[in-house]
Every structure is written in C-alpha cells, then in structure tokens.
C-alpha cells in the first residue's frame, strides 16, 4: 500500500536497474551514480574529519528546499527525471545526494580560507554555484 493514494496513478517505480537505466539514458545514469559516489565519499570524509553535522545539515537543508518548492503552488509544475532510485514519484535520491555533495564540498573548501563568516558564506555560495 502506498503512503499517498495519488502515487498509485503515477508511472513510477522506487527502483530501476542501473544497467537498464544506462541502456535508455546513458549520460543521465552516469551523472546519477557519480553524484551518489561523490555524496557518499563526502560522508566518509565528514566522518573522518568531524564534519558529520555539516554533511547532515547539507543533506537536510537541500532536501527540505526541494520538497518545500515542490509543494508551492506557483512552482508545482516540474518533475525530476525518473532515476534508478526514487524516494517519491517526484524526488529521485540523486537530488538529495547532489545537495549533500555540493553544499558539503563548497562549505568545507571555503572554511579552509579562515575568512570572516560573511566572506566565508559568500565564497561557499560562489563555489556551490561553480559546482552546480
């Protein structure tokens, strides 16, 4: 049984074979699994460097941002591509992983410069823009 009855009417699956996905959309499958590898590598880095709060904050804020805008009436008009791993019919796992990776990497890199907070935040934003 689905959490949301409306999902039953939608053409989606929570899991698709990555090989099957690669056969249909090779570049999409590569980027999806690349983001997955980067995000989980960042999690390992965060664990080794006491950066877990940052990694989980990046994951939470990025996910909340995407979900929040999905339900806003003025932007409830987009769908993500159907990836190998889908959390909901509109939210693939790689989007969550992408947020975790981009926010974690850009913040970690900006912190290396020991800038004042506002400057660090600006540099984090610029780095995130470049990575995105």
Quick gist of this model?
With 132 residues, the protein is mostly helical.
Give an overview of the whole structure:
Strands 1-2 form a two-stranded antiparallel ribbon. It is globular, with a radius of gyration of 17 Å. Helix 2 crosses helix 4 (93-111). The chain has five helices and two strands, in the order H-H-H-E-E-H-H. It has helices at residues 18-24, 26-48, 52-70, 93-111, 117-131, and strands at residues 86-88, 91-92. It is mainly alpha-helical.
| Integer average pLDDT | 91
Class derived from helix and strand content: mainly alpha
Report the end-to-end length measured between terminal Cα atoms: 36 Å
What is the string of SSEs from the N terminus onward? HHHEEHH
Radius of gyration: 17 Å
Enumerate the strands of the largest sheet in spatial order, edge to edge or round the barrel.
Answer: 1-2
Low-confidence stretches: none
Shape: globular
Helix content: 55-70%
- Number of helical segments with 4 or more residues: 5
Largest sheet: 2 strands, antiparallel
* Proportion of residues in extended strands: under 5%
Q: Based on DSSP secondary structure assignment, what is the total number of beta strands?
A: 2
List keywords for this structure.
132 residues, mainly alpha, two-stranded antiparallel sheet, 5 helices, 63% helix
